[in-house]
Amino acid sequence: MTMAPTPAPLDARGRRGLTAPLLAALASAAVLVATAWFFVTTRLGQLIDDAALSGADAGPLTLTQAILPVLDLVSVPFVAGAVVAAVVIAVAQRRWSIAGAAVLLLVGANVTTQVVKAILPRPDLDATLALANSLPSGHTTVAASVAATALLIAPQRWRGPVAIGGAVYAVATGLATMAIEWHRASDVVAAFAVAAFWYFIIEAARSVRRRSLPRGYRGAPGANAVTLLSVVAVATGLLGVVIGVFTALNVPVYERSGEVIAYVGACSSVIAASAVATLAMLAMRPHHRASSYSAGS
Question: Residue-wise over 182-214: b if at least 16 C-beta within 10 A, else e?
Answer without folding.
Answer: bbbbbbbbbbbbbbbbbbbbbbbbbbeebbbbb
